[in-house]
Amino acid sequence: MKSEPWPELPLEQWRDTYATLHMWTQIVGKICLALTPLVNHFWNIAFVVTSRGVATPAMPYGVGRALNMTFDFISHVLVARCSDGGARSIPLSARSVAVFYRDTLQMLHELGVDVKIWTMPVEVPDPVRFELDTGHTTYDPVYAQRFWQILLRVADVMQEFRAGFVGKCSPVHFFWGSFDLAVTRFSGRRAPERPGADPITREAYSHEVISHGFWPGSGAIQTAAFYAYAAPEPPGFKEARVLPAAAAYNRDVSEFILPYDAVRSQSNPAAVLESFLRSTYEAGARLAQWDRGSLERATAT
Fold first, then answer.
1. Which of 8, 125, 129, 231 is most buried, by CB atoms within 10 Å?
2. Distance of CA 296 to CAs 185, 196, 237, 278, 286, Å?
3. Of 184, 270, 164, the residue nearest 227 (C-alpha)
4. pLDDT digits 0-9 by tens, 109-153
5. Beta-carbon contacts of residue 299 (< 8 Å; ≥ 6 apart)
């Protein structure tokens, strides 16, 4: 079935907005980290894609009180809402990370929420503390909204893909550190210890996983792309034949990479993406000898 092409997202056209928004989401993510109890693999800090943007989970604050924060890419505001009915917002508009950090904490203070966070960004080269970052100032609402519209489409496909797995599986969620939408399946087996691993990596990869995601591009991948990897990677995974033909194993990042542009303009982008998710999972699960009979939902015939 033919569907409308998915939106374009050329990295060069929105790189500065992407960088600024990445830092803004990290500020809110650090608030989530400070207020929520640790869940395995840091699932407590991930955002969810909503009908208006991306949002934190409900974050407890005080007795019987909770806070939720949403990046609303329709009205272009960051909204904070409390379970007692209190609500405040600040605009998503061109201004520095330092100003956004100040305004976010002031907004929460007006709601009676005072929280201290570690202000150093993570998973980016040459990080600058939020309160000192006056270099990231760009916000293009057209591209911010376009990015969210893509997340909506990708999340729909990932949710369908996730539904076929009855073993342990992450939600479809957005990680503000790596700025990607991801879903991860688990075999149920412990993974070998990673010598020298930092605490986040040690927690994330404590068990065998096959993970899939979408991100706007960074580092060795200078284009929006989908990815798939297995950790630990089984022998033969690099050489596995997967779908579609545009997907290939990238040795720089040790992942299968499928450029977003190879998906978005196809007559049925969702079906093309689904073939990538399914074929890379099947390759990894087969080569790692997962117990697929107990992990996958039986398909009615």
1. 231
2. 10, 33, 20, 12, 13
3. 184
4. 999 999 999 999 999 999 999 999 999 999 999 999 999 999 999
5. 164
